[in-house]
Recover the amino acids of this structure.
């Protein structure tokens, strides 16, 4: 499968690229700075572009079978990066006839995930620190949900930079899940969604 990874040099995107290559997929890494891609072994192509630039996304999209988005927020300040990017992405995927999209969201953004259990996260970090980031994500997801794409909107909670441990659990509301996970496990879950249909056109909360 030919897979375009947007946000390929981020902490989750790097794991997704590595796992795709290990599974024999042909990967195109869409990045602002090509020099940030250090390991270019296997069937890896690097395309320079910007999330706000529809033309660069269009160039990278040609010939792909599916898309993984692991695009992080650029700032905690009020912004529209996610919304602008999602509009661009939907338009370009529709133009090229590509339907499968695995999108990295966050707990508390898409879907009906239960509130964070940690009091600091629930009453300060999410509603105060991340308020602009989540507002941008929600505007972006409104466009995604109205599209005809076969998306899987993946909503993890707190992410740790630690080796994979397995045992990932998923549900539409997140009840009963431990609200954290390791990025390597998150990337594996996202890669799996390219060929699985359980969560198509749904928001899925993931954790342990």
């Amino acid at each position: 499968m030919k897979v375009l990874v947007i946000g390929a040099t981020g902490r989750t995107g790097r794991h997704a690229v590595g796992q795709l290559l290990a599974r024999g997929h042909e990967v195109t890494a869409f990045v602002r700075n090509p020099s940030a891609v250090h390991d270019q072994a296997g069937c890896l192509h690097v395309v320079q572009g910007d999330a706000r630039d529809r033309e660069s996304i269009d160039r990278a999209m040609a010939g792909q079978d599916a898309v993984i988005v692991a695009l992080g927020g650029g700032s905690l300040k009020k912004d529209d990066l996610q919304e602008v990017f999602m509009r661009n992405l939907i338009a370009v995927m529709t133009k090229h006839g590509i339907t499968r999209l695995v999108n990295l969201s966050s707990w508390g953004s898409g879907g009906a995930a239960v509130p964070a259990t940690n009091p600091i996260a629930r009453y300060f970090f999410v509603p105060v620190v991340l308020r602009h980031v989540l507002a941008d994500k929600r505007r972006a997801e409104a466009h995604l949900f109205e599209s005809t794409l076969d998306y899987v909107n993946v909503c993890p909670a707190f992410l740790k930079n630690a080796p994979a441990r397995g045992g990932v659990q998923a549900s539409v509301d997140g009840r009963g899940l431990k609200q954290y996970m390791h990025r390597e496990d998150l990337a594996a879950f996202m890669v799996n969604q390219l060929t699985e249909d359980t969560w198509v056109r749904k928001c899925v909360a993931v954790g342990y």
Remarks:
- The domain at 2-207 is CATH 3.40.50.720 (Rossmann fold).
- The chain has six helices and ten strands.
- The first strand starts at residue 2 and ends at 6.
